Amino acid sequence: MATWLTVMTGKSGRIFPGHRLSAAGGDATPQLGQTRLATRPRRPVVVARAGISGASRTRLTASCETAGMRITVLAGGVGAARFLRGLKAAAPDAEITVIGNTGDDISLFGLHVSPDLDTVLYTLGGGISEEQGWGRAEETFTVLHELAAYGAGPGWFALGDRDFATHIARTSMLRAGAPLSAVTRALSERWRPGVTLLPMTDDQVETRVTIDAGGDAGSRTVHFQEWWVRMRAAVPAVAITFSGAQAAAPAPGVLEAIAAADCVLLPPSNPVVSVGTILAVPGIEAALRAKTVVGVSPIIAGAPVRGMADACLAAIGVEATAAAVAAHYGAGLLDGWLVDDQDKPAVDDPRLAGIAVRALPLYMTDLAASAQIARSALSLAGELACRAS
Ligand code: GDP
Ligand code: CA
After folding, report:
1. Chain centroid to CA 21
2. CA dihedral in degrees (386, 88, 173, 141; nearest 10)?
3. Ligand closest to CA 306
4. Which of 46, 98, 230, 367 could bond 389 through an S-S bridge, CB–CB 3.0 to 4.6 Å?
5. CA 305 to ligand 1: nearest atom
6. Region 155-166: what's the mean pLDDT?
């Protein structure tokens, strides 16, 4: 059951894991172990936290009271989806809103493809190919082969038959005039992901990559998917841009979900072309700066766990290390940062002054591991909100 409290601000407050309330709200006299947090202002009001011993804090953390909590997550594709599966397990009664990256969206065969939104829907809805981390399970490729027989391309972007149905459904709704947010809501009715999935914007934003074609060819700019999927990011990128982002508006509900959140989590998504794209939509980063934000590093021991995020980081001049990624986000945005045990020195890295860094195992090898990472992120968010007030 949700635990709601009226705090000194008169606004509703919620409880983070690790800060379980032992008595029902309305009692003005705080007791040992009670922590009361207001959603706003940024630093929630804490009526009392003195006297929580280390042992109690550990016990409280283990209790993980998340009922009724509002958690907002910025999401790319595979890294985000696996983290979200863990978050749902760690906070089964929380209200989770996911703001998805649409900079990877691409028009193929006249169809609107939203790879990151679909990865979240398929993963949380039980339709994902577990081996790949993207695309549908039990997929076949008859349509793509038939298209190839007509010489219709591109052939480098794998679209399976089941997946095609999603893109046909999405495109027909868009053509009928529905905005992407409404279409995503409609697709969610089938997949029932257990979170509210919002595209970052209803406007067109396209991630583009400028590559150095070498020799006299100079540079040319291609759609992100052409660089990422067709070229496997093997050609160095000299710039990554988010075409249309400046003129884009956050989709309905995005700023509201951030404002209402008890904490915002950045999963281990690509910092440049997943989280970075979402942050490029005007208004989103400013809204996040007013919240407690905790991120999970997608980089472990100087390399991405999967994919080519290092190539994206190189394009923007950021080292592929857990510490450099946190420094790139900056203390203005990020309050807490989880790094893998192998990156423990980041805990004391002077570049990360103002960001609370914790080291723990960060491989999402199974649901239990992902849930433990999510639990640690929530626990750190609670601790930071508590400390700052
Ligand atoms: P994409 O849009 O499908 O590329 O997915 P995301 O942007 O959401 O996530 C990609 C990032 O997830 C990559 O940079 C990976 O390093 C990271 N990632 C994948 N698996 C893991 C994992 O088990 N642990 C951590 N910490 N990061 C991971
Ligand atoms: Ca993506």
Report:
1. 28
2. 140
3. 1
4. 46
5. 16
6. 96
